[in-house]
Amino acid sequence: SQELEQSPQSLIVQEGKNLTINCTSSKTLYGLYWYKQKYGEGLIFLMMLQKGGEEKSHEKITAKLDEKKQQSSLHITASQPSHAGIYLCGAVPSGTYKYIFGTGTRLKVLA
Amino acid sequence: DTGVSQNPRHKITKRGQNVTFRCDPISEHNRLYWYRQTLGQGPEFLTYFQNEAQLEKSRLLSDRFSAERPKGSFSTLEIQRTEQGDSAMYLCASSAVGSEETQYFGPGTRLLVL
Fold first, then answer.
1. CB-CB neighbours of A80 under 10 Å
2. Average pLDDT for A13-22
3. Residues 6+ apart with CB under 8 A from B109
4. How far apart are CA A93 and CA B32, in angstroms?
5. What confidence score (pLDDT) does residue A56 get?
6. What is the pLDDT of residues A61-73, one digit of tens each?
7. Considering CB atoms only, which of A45, A96, A102 is closest to B42?
8. For B2-11, how does the pLDDT look when each residue is reduced to its tens digit (9 = 90+)?
9. What is the spatial distance between Cα A5 and Cα A65, in angstroms, rounded to a whole number?
10. Which positions ≥6 away from A52 have C-beta within 8 Å?
11. Among B100, B110, B112, which would you mutate to test the A interface (most chain A Cβ atoms within 10 Å of its Cβ)?
12. Which partner for A42 in A18, A77, B31, B105 could form a disulfide, CB atoms 3.0-4.6 Å apart?
């Protein structure tokens, strides 16, 4: 079965710093989804990557999918307290529509 | 608001009681999913509907759990004879066919079994 591993598990950064979160899959990714979750709330969709080498940006967040489609990174530039939360990567294993998720990266941004 | 909605947002119950949660998906979405999330973990898949048909169920979904989507619109998730281990956040998501399978999540129902 396919598994997703995220690193780091938690991250504390000073406001204004850049940071990167990684998501590694045990199998080829056919779709990689990034979500943000605030404590006790639902997941907010950020971006979806499908093609090897693909890169997407939204405001100060950039996500990339490597050429081999087994690893994705999420990069936040000039972090702000509003970026704080749990970042989750999700994927759809071949032959199904359900998502599997990584365990999440907990981000805290110090003002 | 046209997002996914879930009710109730919070539920506290005593062990052994039955509970039912409701999910209203985005209106044009024909796929609906239930996930369970425990503290410090990512969401785990429970079950999935396409229209009114329940097409996939996780082994996590024991006999005490049942989900329905009778008219292909809203869905309910019932847990019978709740146990303390059922305490978790129950998340509902929906997606549309051909939308790159992006799932949009509701705010979740947090269940605490005492």
1. 13
2. 97
3. B6, B7, B8, B9, B10, B11, B21, B89, B90
4. 17
5. 96
6. 999 999 888 999 9
7. A102
8. 799 999 999 9
9. 14
10. A65, A66, A67, A68, A69
11. B100
12. B105
* Sign (positive or negative) of CA dihedral A54, A58, A59, A63: negative
Reference B47, options B27, B62, B26; nearest CA is: B62
Is B25's Cβ below 8 Å from some Cβ in A? no
| Angle value at C-alpha B36, between B12 and B113, nearest 5 degrees | 20
Structure token pair of residue A89: 């990567």
Query: Whole-angstrom Cα distance, residue A79 to residue A17?
Result: 5
| Contact assignment for B42 to A88 by CB distance below 8 Å | yes
Cα(A83)–Cα(A46) distance, integer angstroms: 12
CB contact under 8 A, B43 and A96: no
- In whole angstroms, what is the distance from residue A46 CA to residue B71 CA? 30
Residue type, B79: I
What the block records as the tokens of B32 is 């609906």
The average pLDDT across B11-16 equals 98
The radius of gyration of chain B from alpha carbons, rounded to an integer in Å, stands at 13
Contact B105 A42 (CB under 8 A): yes
Q: By the 8 A CB rule, do B92 and B34 touch?
A: yes
